[in-house]
Design brief:
globular; 274 residues; 8-stranded parallel beta barrel; 9 helices; TIM Barrel; alpha/beta
């Protein structure tokens, strides 16, 4: 089935929960990859009360919140809201928490990996207490988990019941391994998948070449979605698939419409793969 499909709500900033739920239904998804960051209806400061309330309201509308995305600097279980956020997720029935991003420190790559793993131990302990799994998103650029091989340097040896990987089709297309290899590398830890399509293009600014990575509608970028769908079916993947729809130049209403186009595209690919 490759469901549930959920939508990342980062670019619906300014919308209240009622607007978000209505938008998700229009987009053709079954729930939210809920952005829990400052400035959103549910945020780290109010999650203890508001996340369980949001989950109940979603359920009343036939929607779910299997995953939340935390602030980009949420990289240590020592942060003052870490335990309360995981406990709120447990109460709300949210099973997955996307962590923030680690970057290479002064001591170099391997010293940073050791530091990442030390911090991940703290999150694994929270997972043990609450049943809520922290997951690491592979993100191109300078993040320490930029592709499958890199993210495995962080998670390998941890209990896959306590720590997971959030594989991103778009970012893997920029800096990742071939998809069958990329997903095989992390398959033991694979907890969620992000559907996003990217292109990397060179521009000339002030007479100098610069490279930019841009989000484009699914099927128009470097992502090979027929191969990804085949691989996920072969793996019998049953976790959430998050449509990132990071079309930041569009108003929120247009982002919903584009997400609907993206979900139809993916359904067409699934039907063609058979």
């Amino acid at each position: 089935m490759l469901k549930p499909w959920i939508m990342f709500t980062k670019h619906l900033e300014g919308w209240d929960l009622e607007q978000i739920m209505a938008g998700l239904k229009q987009a053709g998804v079954q729930g939210a990859d809920l952005c829990v960051r400052p400035g959103y209806p549910v945020n780290p400061e109010n999650a203890t009360t508001e996340l369980p309330k949001a989950a109940r309201r979603f359920a009343d509308e036939g929607l779910s919140i299997p995953l939340i995305t935390t602030p980009g600097d949420f990289v240590s279980a020592d942060v003052d809201y870490a335990q309360s956020l995981f406990e709120a997720c447990a109460e709300a029935g949210v099973k997955l928490v996307k962590l923030g991003y680690w970057f290479m420190e002064e001591g170099g790559y391997w010293a940073t990996i050791d530091h990442c793993r030390q911090r991940l131990e703290g999150f694994a302990k929270l997972a043990e207490k609450t049943g809520v799994k922290p997951i690491i998103h592979n993100h191109s650029g300078g993040s320490m988990g930029l592709n499958s091989s890199s993210v495995m340097n962080i998670v390998k040896g941890f209990d896959p019941n306590l720590v997971g990987v959030y594989a991103d089709v778009g970012h893997l297309s920029i800096v990742g391994e071939p998809y069958p290899m990329a997903f095989d590398i992390v398959k033991e830890y694979l907890a969620a998948v992000a559907f996003k399509d990217l292109v990397r293009q060179r521009y000339i600014e002030n007479g100098q070449p610069v490279w930019r990575v841009e989000v484009v509608p699914l099927g128009l970028g470097f992502g090979d979605f027929p191969t990804v769908i085949k691989v996920l079916k072969e793996l019998d993947f049953r976790g959430p698939i998050s449509f990132h729809c990071e079309y930041s130049r569009l108003p929120a209403e247009s982002i919903i419409h584009q997400c609907r186009i993206d979900t139809r595209y993916v359904q067409d690919v699934i039907d063609s793969v058979g």
